[in-house]
Amino acid sequence: MSQLRRKRSPMVRAGMVIAASPGTLIAPEGSPRPKMRLLSYGPDTLKESQPGTAAELKAQITPGRTNWVDVQGLGDLDTLVEVSEIFGLHRLAMEDVLNIPQRPKLEEYDDHQFIVVRMPVSRESARTEQMSLFFGKDYVLTIQEQYGDFFDPIRERVRSGRPRLRQGGTDYLVYALLDALVDSYFPVLQFLGQQLDEIEEEIHDNPDKSHSQRLNELKRDLVSLRRYVWPLREVVDAMIHEDNELVTDETRLYLRDCLDHAVHAYDLIESYREIANGLMDLYLSIMSQRMNEVMKVLTIIATLFIPLSFIAGLYGMNFDTSASRWNMPELSWPFGYPLVLAIMGLCGGGMLFYFWRKGWFR
């Protein structure tokens, strides 16, 4: 590519307008059009549909049941506003839905709660997308940035009539979604761990500059995951310990297990960060050792040629032996040249023997 694409800084939010009035809604550029899916269920009933408009969605919501509305895509602002009006969502909360990325958090309103989390988009990538979750007495609304998620097993559990999920209410559904989201980080961490293992083996075998670049990329991915998993722990912990009428005591027990998973994921991230830092130190140490070996060889070669250069330079002077008997009389000897070469050979050999006795070749 002739031009490098400048990556968006993580501090810059998509759709954010400087000094805009509170509650200003702007759809993120390039987002897909919303697709809606409704799962309305109770202990013995289940209705599943894919409404095309907010009006159809409103007509299909059944009061008294658990209504899970899943919206994927943020490309149509009018549809999102109409959906928010159905559930009476605050405009500031919708602003957070559209201003990406948000820090994972939990906010309480009069009759519902608002959760923002980050969800991995692939099992082999540290890239994440934002998911906003609203839940009240009889509904759970999930709004995702892109198409696709890790929630198909939960949908299958609802369809198969699992009693705990069918009878658990909206708070249990929220727990199931958060638990699936936390678990979705583990395949990503496993992939990053495998990458670290491969880099470690390659560094021991034959380190090169590409390893430094790969380690920096992995460290950047781990920092990004840490930035999202740490506040995710706070979100789950807040649902457990804060006085929340929408969350039952039984669901809090399950949320404790979800919190343990989040803590485990965070601990793995910290461990991998330490491993990555250690591998970087190992890479620099091996490269420094290689450089020292090269410098040792060059130093030995240079040291060998210092006396040889002196002898060659000394006998390269233009002395006149006829002017004085002290002006290198060996210049007129018939075996003067072989003698000087022999002296130079003995000098170099003696120095090599000395270096060997000192252990400089080990």
Task: Describe the SSE topology.
Blueprint: E1 35-41, E2 46-49, H1 54-60, E3 66-72, H2 77-87, H3 91-98, E4 105-108, E5 113-120, E6 128-135, E7 139-144, H4 152-159, H5 163-167, H6 170-183, H7 185-205, H8 209-241, H9 249-315, H10 336-358
Parallel strand pairs: 3-7
Antiparallel strand pairs: 1-2, 1-3, 4-5, 5-6, 6-7
Structure description:
- The chain has 362 residues and is of the alpha+beta class.
- The protein folds into two domains: 35-285, CorA soluble domain-like (Beta Polymerase, domain 2, 2-Layer Sandwich); 317-358.
- It contains ten helices and seven strands.
- The chain has helices at 54-60, 77-87, 91-98, 152-159, 163-167, 170-183, 185-205, 209-241, 249-315, 336-358, and strands at residues 35-41, 46-49, 66-72, 105-108, 113-120, 128-135, 139-144.
- Strands 2-1-3-7-6-5-4 form a seven-stranded mixed sheet, with helices on both faces.
- α7 (185-205) runs antiparallel to α8 and α9 packs antiparallel against α10.
- The longest helix is centred in the last third of the chain and has 67 residues, at 249-315.
- The radius of gyration is 36 Å and the shape is rod-shaped.
What's the gist of this structure?
By secondary structure, the chain is of the alpha+beta class. The chain contains 10 helices and 7 strands.
